[in-house]
Amino acid sequence: MPDRGGGPTGPRMRVGRPSRRVRTLLMTLGVLAVLGMAFTMFAGFWTDWLWYRSVNYSSVFTTTLWTKTGLFFVFGLLMALAVGFNIWLAHRLRPPLSAMSMEQQNLDRYRMGIAPYKKWLLLGITSLVGLIAGASASSQWRTWLMWVNGVPFNQKDPQFHLDVAFYAFDLPWYRFLLGFGFATAILSVIAAALTHYLYGGLRITSPGARATAAATGHLSVLMGVFVALKAVAYWLDRYGLAVKSSDFKATDSWTGLRYVDANAYLPAKTILFCIAVICALLFFATLWRRTWQLPVIGFGLMVLSAILIGGLYPAIVQKFQVQPNEQAKEAPYVNKNLKATREAYGIDDAKVTEYGGKATTTDKTKLRDDVDATASIRVVDPNIVSPTFQQLQQMRNYYAFPTNLDVDRYSKDGTDQDTVIGLRELNLNGIPKNNWINDHFRYTHGYGVVAAKGTAADSEGRPVFTESNLPSQGDLGTYQQRVYYGEKTTEYSIVGGPQKEIDYSDDTGEKTYSYQAKSGVNLSNPVNRAAYAVAFSEPQILYSGAIGEGSRILYNRTPKQRVEAVAPWLTIDGDAYPAVVGGKIQWIVDAYTTTNGYPYASRTTLGDTTADSLTATNNQRAVVAQQNQVNYIRNSVKATVDAYTGEVKLYQWDTQDPVLKTWMKAFPGTVESKTDIPAALMAHLRYPQDLFKVQRELLARYHVEDADTFLSGSEVWQVPDDPTNKSGDAVPPYYLSMKMPDQSAQAFSLTTTFTPNGRDNLSAFMSVDAEAGTPDYGKIRILKLPTNTTVNGPKQVQSQFNSEQNIAETISLLNRGDSNVEYGNLLTVPLDGGLLYVEPVYVRGGGLKYPLLRKVLVTYGGNTAFEDTLDEALNKVFEADGSTTEPPDEDGGDTTNPPPTSSNPTVQAALNDAQTAFDAGQEALKKGDWEAYGRAQEDLEDALQRAEDAQAAADKTASSSPSPSASPSKSAGSSPSSSPSS
User: Fold this and answer.
1) What is the pLDDT of residue 206?
2) Strands in 795-880 per DSSP E
3) Residue 100: its pLDDT value, please?
4) Residue 928's pLDDT is what?
5) H helices then E strands: how many in the chain?
6) pLDDT reading at 167 higher than 50
7) How far apart are CA 724 and CA 799, in angstroms?
8) Where do the DSSP E strands lie in 134-283?
9) Is the pTM of this model over 0.85?
């Protein structure tokens, strides 16, 4: 009988193929895995397409997609063909017999091993390099579109006399092609050399020649191509000198040719180009000579020439020609850099005026009157009062205001007034219970605008609201108050379906709402739901019953996200701001076109130049694309995002900008004409902060117009650190309605100060007319202080405030206990030859969770005041008559006036109680006892209310009586603002 066992211990285990069931299961799992990956890739593509279609910018998606796809396939195929052809050619040129050596015997095993898979191996290698090259090329879609659509600048560089468009649009594309050519040549050389070695065309240890004639010719041609590309690189490097960055004596970053570039590097590059061409020809000649001798000698000479001519010779010129007489040698090139930099950053028309820094008149009454005509001084700091807005106008925990509010202009009785404005946006951290339905279906939007006067606070130090409550009411009229798109709205919401949304709550309870606009993507389609379930990693989107007919998903909801998505070729300003325009809340977003290819213009890093004390604590305000190095910038586009519908509109703002014209050719129909901007929107457009910060950083050095001063560095300025902030970051620019000495009326302006490099005294004051639609919009004015006179800068003014004994004692009292003093924006206003500084002082604590304006610091011409209101402080500084307060007594407190009187005993009793409460509040204020102060204010309000009620009852009785009775004094006001002795 045959032995069926596997040995003495039992039957032998069969080893073979898996069962059919296992194979079927494995195959099914494999197919499902492939389908899953494919659908994941499809989901990302499909949701992007749906989003762009929903915002009516599908052309941006398709143009970008087809450009990337075209570059991927063209350059991927070129790379694959080049490498594949050279591998095939090296294989075709292999010797028929390999040398009998140990080296070749070892290689025989590899040759035999890959022989059955040669075609697959070739396909795999070429596919891999093709994919890598294609992916790299597709990332250059911006470079391609700018090259193929570029329009001329109609400005020529001073060295080569080529249009600036060559450097901005053409040269980057040529450099990419050159880099691609180098990569192709190097990979082809490596692939061909390995193939020749594998098949015996190249030998290392075998006897005889180290390379066959065929291998020598093949590799020589490839090396010749590489050296020819190097010759092209040398030629392009000549033009690259015009946009080359380097360190220089008087500046951190210098762009353009200097003396050594024009007189050493430029001729060196031309000589090296000629040498490289000759060397390339020597490599090509190897096809006939079949020897490496000449090309190797030529290549060695080229390397030696690059060291001597390209490195040593320029160093000698710099050492022995430039350094002994640097001022004279560099001056012509510095003048070119000065002119180009000022043009590239739009600061060439900046008007510099000498300014004395001291008052030209001794008439203090006139000075006091001139203050009101010169500036509408804003004492409500938008960067401090957000907690106050939050406490007084939040209304519900699921609403919130941004950390930094905005300043805008709104008309009141025909007069524009600076207004601090913020939106009551959705805050998911404040909803009663977080779950998927609440987070994404019920709590979907904020509600209403809250605005306050920028130039005044009430008697308690709170903002004077011009738009408030829920729903918001006030000066802004009727508008769509729901905020579905905002700076704090970062989560997606699903609206318009069977699930109702929380609209807002009032005394009658919660109001519900269903979204009415067509924004977002419709989720009625099951394919869409599945795609978003994958894209957002949320399977409930696929099967939730809260999604039904009419459901739409809203995402990419911050204004900057939306503008950046529909215009990926723009750089976005860090601060979007809201405005009520035509019955809608519109987010206004400033956007820039930039390039780093403007010849001779010095470069700057946007993230560094736009940083200040606010961006250090609020990353949302940082400019998008922070690390972009640019040397040309224009505020070419004004964009709007509807807070309710999410609609994005792009308006051409700079009609002369060639970079914008280039992108408008690439993406036709995406940017609307400047003439299409509605007048109501124009009234709220303003000069952008980030552009101003870039310009002030450049003007700190480039305000001078002659090379000698620039080279000496004696006129270099710096932006001072924020004296009210301990971060050590630059002071932010401030919006302020004011007039400069050459202006006849106030204009909405953006302002900043400069100090000398390394010193704290004031060098200059700079402003730009920020009100769009006016003839002077964008005009930069600089008041330059004399160098032989010391005028206090912001840091010195702040130190002066803190060092005066009376002020320091009061600040110390205000800082007692759990109370904290917060300094507001230190505003600078040119006034009659001198400089007026104003700083609001806020106090937070003592049971209050928000800052209140308590004092105002003012200084002018060496006189300083620290009073309860701006008017009081100005009156004291200018010793004006009609001051609303008595001089401080010996204890530093205010002398109170006699309480008002009334013939009505009930009213008089209430007024006496009000006076007692007021005095108690003042005493608590001196002691820094904020808890007692809060109680006193409550008693004051209660007493005033009783006085008002008693007076109303008396008036009613008097109106029904035949004989009139006496009325109380008008001083019995009905609000804290008319409190006794206030």
Assistant:
1) 59
2) 820-823, 827-831, 834-845, 848-860, 863-867
3) 60
4) 55
5) 29, 35
6) yes
7) 10
8) 245-248, 251-255
9) no
